[in-house]
Task: inverse folding
């Protein structure tokens, strides 16, 4: 593996971003100098009978092409070889660096990091904190290094943006040994998304990010809210795991920690069953019968009581976090909605801002329905706090961080 960063890497700035999930691989090949996506795609249903692969690319004349195909019994290895073959076949520019999304960096990784055997070993050790994610991320790293051995590979960590939280925020009031021996503390997640939309808001406002106080709401299937003071995270809703905080598609969010113990003691549920219930069978799915916010809204508008209950629970918790973070920040320059639900549901945004006028939050009903741009301002002119809908772009943020790392750490070509 080549871990050197040379002049060619800096000049070309063609970044391949890899994002491996439990059954998906998303990838983008970006040319940062021209702000163009040369190739992007997603594999869905990996290790299942049929894998769907959709991808688009630009040819030499900058015409866009799209293709979708089904692959039988494709593994992660097959998918990565497919990516390398496509780059070769369509004759686009080759990556000069590869950026990898890694979910959990623990306390060790607080910024983008050049991948080498020592880093790989440490990410593997951290897999105990994110067993469903880090192992898959590592598989993608190893395959990418095999296929693109002569370029630097950079890890960008979901937890890194939150490592500026003070100790009185990230520590839990539990035995010291739980923290020192078992690494139990608040880590936070979705950091790449929160960081991206915060920077986009700063660009829009034409102010340095370090001067701004923001509340960012990443609302998708997994949800989190982050308080940003002078450009740095000071608190976030997710905790030791992504289970904490807001009510989500299938996750419960904050509940009394005695509940899992009670259920184990009274029903003889195994720990694995309790974990599955809280992570995969709770949230909107448990209350409304669907994890799809569009379906929950549809049923609520038809008068379905449990769907309306689910929406009230969902938005109540968001409003509670908004209020508490305003108290922490004092001055708030903007509140940002992003991710699948945050970007696309005007009704959820409206419900989350209802009756918060006394806190300086005034949403414009008309603007809230017109959010087709990358950044849309949806507050009234008189609103003390600006309200933005910003389309997140985690792959672009990863590419930006990889590029910045390369510029900061460039060595002369050997």
Result:
């Amino acid at each position: 593996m080549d871990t050197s960063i040379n002049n060619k890497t800096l000049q070309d700035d063609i970044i391949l971003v890899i994002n491996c999930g439990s059954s998906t691989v998303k990838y983008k090949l970006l040319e940062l100098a021209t702000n163009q996506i040369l190739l992007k795609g997603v594999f869905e249903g990996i290790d299942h009978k049929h894998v769907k692969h959709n991808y688009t690319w630009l040819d030499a004349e900058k015409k866009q092409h799209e293709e979708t195909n089904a692959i039988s019994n494709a593994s992660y290895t097959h998918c990565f070889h497919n990516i390398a073959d496509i780059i070769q076949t369509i004759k686009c520019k080759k990556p000069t660096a590869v950026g990898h999304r890694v979910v959990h960096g623990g306390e060790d990784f607080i910024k983008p990091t050049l991948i080498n055997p020592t880093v790989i070993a440490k990410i593997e050790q951290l897999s105990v904190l994110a067993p469903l994610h880090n192992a898959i991320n590592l598989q993608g790293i190893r395959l990418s290094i095999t296929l693109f051995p002569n370029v630097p590979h950079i890890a960008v960590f979901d937890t890194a943006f939150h490592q500026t939280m003070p100790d009185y925020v990230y520590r839990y009031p539990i035995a010291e040994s739980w923290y020192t021996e078992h690494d139990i503390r608040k880590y936070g997640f979705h950091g790449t998304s929160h960081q991206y939309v915060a920077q986009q808001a700063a660009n829009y406002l034409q102010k340095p990010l370090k001067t701004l106080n923001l509340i960012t709401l990443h609302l998708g299937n997994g949800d989190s809210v982050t308080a940003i003071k002078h450009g740095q995270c000071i608190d976030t809703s997710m905790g030791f795991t992504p289970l904490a905080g807001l009510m989500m598609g299938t996750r419960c969010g904050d509940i009394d920690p005695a509940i899992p113990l009670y259920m184990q003691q009274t029903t003889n549920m195994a720990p694995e069953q309790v974990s599955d219930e809280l992570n995969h069978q709770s949230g909107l799915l448990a209350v409304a019968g669907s994890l799809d916010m569009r379906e929950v809204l549809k049923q609520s508008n038809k008068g379905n009581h449990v769907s309306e209950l689910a929406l009230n629970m969902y938005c109540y918790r968001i409003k509670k976090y908004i209020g508490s973070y305003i108290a922490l920040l004092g001055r708030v320059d903007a509140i940002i909605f992003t991710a699948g639900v945050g970007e696309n549901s005007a009704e959820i945004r409206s419900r989350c801002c209802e009756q918060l006028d006394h806190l300086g939050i005034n949403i414009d009903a008309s603007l809230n329905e017109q959010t087709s741009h990358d950044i849309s301002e949806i507050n009234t002119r008189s609103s003390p706090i600006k309200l933005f809908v910003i389309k997140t772009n985690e792959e672009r943020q990863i590419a930006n961080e990889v590029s910045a790392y390369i510029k900061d750490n460039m060595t002369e070509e050997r």
Summary: The chain has two domains: 7-157, 207-394. The chain is about 40% helix and 20% strand.
